[in-house]
Amino acid sequence: MENKTYTIKEVAEKTNLTIPTIRYYETEGVLPPVERSESGNRVFTDSDIGWLDLICCLRGTGMPIKKIKQFVQWCLEGDDTIDDRIEMLIEHGKTVDEQLEVLSNYKAAIEWKINYHREMKMQIDARRNAVRLMEQQDLKS
Amino acid sequence: MENKTYTIKEVAEKTNLTIPTIRYYETEGVLPPVERSESGNRVFTDSDIGWLDLICCLRGTGMPIKKIKQFVQWCLEGDDTIDDRIEMLIEHGKTVDEQLEVLSNYKAAIEWKINYHREMKMQIDARRNAVRLMEQQDLKS
DNA sequence: TCTTGACATAAAGTGCACTTTAGGTTATAA
DNA sequence: TTATAACCTAAAGTGCACTTTATGTCAAGA
């Protein structure tokens, strides 16, 4: 289960990234260099998929590519960068907390809007029914 | 408190948008046309600020400008669009729920990473201390 | 009266994160 | 053996949401 390798297509399916995006991440240095077969094709390992999962996590929480690259480079540089890495993660975690708060406030505002519109709709329907009833009255007379 | 008017600068401060962004929203038709003074300057009301708050809420939850424009246009068209508006808000609300879930999963992953790195740091420090102690031993001998 | 600051417009520019295109190599299957 | 599919690179293109620039008007204070 550990030494399995994957083609770029398989990795794309596993990570929900497109093939060009994965290549782009590697050429940008966000994804560390991937092993190659004799013919030059990328041969991905579970470790590479791990890096991509990390990249997705950081991207999905709004971290720019450049900063992710910085973090990954620190990881590759080794022990001396451990404090920098921890600090970056903690700082980033705080921004994610902020995003969560902002987002749930917006969510509440949207719910409020929905209810407001629903009440509006009730009134509109009531008015239409009233008009319809009046028209029926007119027909009868 | 209701008939107060504002300059574009004041609105920018109130909404945390830049002046060009507010103008951009109006020219794009996302913000309904704002009243003008005799000299052609925009004169904002609380209602305009309300629109901008809505726009910020929808933008901040990932709705593209075009769709916001659609929603605002529906609002201006009146009663007949009430069902469309409610449907859009409900659908959008669902995507916000998804965003919240994804984001809190990512947040958990980051916390996990932080702890992982902290444990790593403990080991690195322990190893460094061990080396330091051994060097002191060497000096004594 | 003149200058300063806040406003205006139209059009071009920017930054980011990909995506698309064009052209080429390699391995398997009919 | 030839065609097809999966991979490759380098470079140009795209889409979105603004932002910047260039140029001009207008009202108020020195």
What's the assembly state of these chains? homodimer
How large a portion of the residues of chain A is in β-strands, by DSSP E? under 5%
**Which residues of chain A sit in consecutive blocks of at least 5 with pLDDT less than 50?**
none
CA radius of gyration of chain A = 27 Å
Total number of strands of chain A: 0
Shape of chain A: elongated
Report mean pLDDT of chain A, rounded to a whole number: 96
Number of helices of chain A: 5
Biggest interface goes to: A-B, 32 and 32 residues
Which sheet architecture does the biggest sheet of chain A show? none
Helix content of chain A: over 70%
Distance between the termini of chain A: 84 Å
Q: Which class of secondary structure composition applies to the elements of chain A? A: mainly alpha
User: H/E order of the elements of chain A?
Assistant: HHHHH
Note the main attributes of this structure.
DNA-binding; about 0% strand; about 75% helix; homodimer
